[in-house]
Amino acid sequence: MKFTLEKKDPKSGARAGTIYTDHGEIKTPIFMPVGTVGSVKAVHIRDVKNEIKAQIILGNTYHLYLRPGIEVLEAAGGLHKFNGWDRPILTDSGGFQVFSLAHRRKIVPEEGTWFRSHIDGSKHLFSPEGVMDIQRSIGADIIMAFDECTHYPCEYKYAKRSMYLTHNWLKRCIARFDSTEPKYGYSQALFPIIQGSIFKDLRTQSAEFIAEQGREGNAIGGMCGPEDMMYEMVDICCNILPQDKPRYLMGVGTPRNILESIALGVDMFDCVMPTRNGRNGMIFTWNGMMNMRNEKWKFDFSPIDENSELFADREYTKAYLRHLYVSNEILGMMIGSIHNLHFFLDLVTTARKKIEEGTFASWKNEIIPILMRKL
What we know:
It is a single chain. This protein is α/β, with parallel strands linked by helices. It folds into two domains: 29-271, Queuine tRNA-ribosyltransferase-like (TIM Barrel), CATH 3.20.20.105; 278-371, no CATH class. Helices cover 43% and strands 18% of the residues. The protein contains 15 helices and 17 strands. The protein has helices at residues 45-50, 61-66, 70-76, 79-83, 95-100, 128-138, 156-178, 200-212, 227-240, 255-264, 273-280, 311-315, 318-326, 330-357, 360-371; strands at 2-8, 15-21, 24-28, 30-32, 57-60, 89-92, 105-108, 112-116, 123-126, 142-144, 189-191, 193-194, 218-220, 247-249, 268-270, 282-285, 288-291. It has a five-stranded parallel beta sheet. Strand 8 and strand 9 (123-126) form a beta hairpin. Helix 7 (156-178) packs parallel to helix 8 (200-212), helix 10 packs parallel to helix 14 (330-357) and helix 11 (273-280) crosses helix 14 (330-357). The radius of gyration is 20 Å and the shape is globular. The N and C termini lie far apart (42 Å).
């Protein structure tokens, strides 16, 4: 994998670049749809590719390890062949999922994290070495180091201890990754993850340590808490991370979060918000957010979004989509999901065009209040 930085916005830290992988190019800034168990919820792979025009999707190491299991994925020839996606894939390490199982896990620093499956209660160990092996078997183009994701709020002492644990585990991840080979004949890249909660000195220390590792790209994790704190931490990290490597902000977020973080120098994003909100009836548009369950849409027979290139936005009306949601029809969830993902990809594509034009900063400030208003 390699990254080429092609353009910088003159009035912000926004960047336009290209990531080159063996499964294709990724134009940044980019939003990556989340495909937790190998599928983007309620959306066909064909539509993720041709309608949403996603350039890269995510898989989840924890969930894929449990189901369908590594044996199945290896027999299929990796996740690309298993789910039919022939473009790049990124897999997270499972660190966040294990973190979320607070009542089912136990961290043993010299080993890793023991946890019980949310499916059947069976006991498993995720070690730095084991997580590298699992992601080799999944076969993603970009794989993440195994880290500990702290809760918010947390005490400084805990955040510091967790950061050092993440750094120690990273050394083990790198050693295992560099001593093994890809299983399916194409290259893989390892991204370390910056931690440190909302503490400036910890984020600085972690970013410096991660930058020193010299990997193909870097990630910023553990971004919980108020938005202003998040932007401050992201700014600290982006000012330290190398210019010639892509920067991935994990699990973020709203259209505002994405545009503000692009302005700080972030290149890659993922979040379950488009599909989760889409299943619940919250639709993002260039004019603002629509709750499609509201009574106001009952007799609105205009297209969902007449300015959209997406077939569903032009062929279905707001009234019909509302009917599907209030009737709990699966089709409503499918339309909402594909619409939101299409919008998020359109958002970062437009952001890239504004960066190339040199107008990103002013455009961002104008568009965010419009995007975040409730219609």
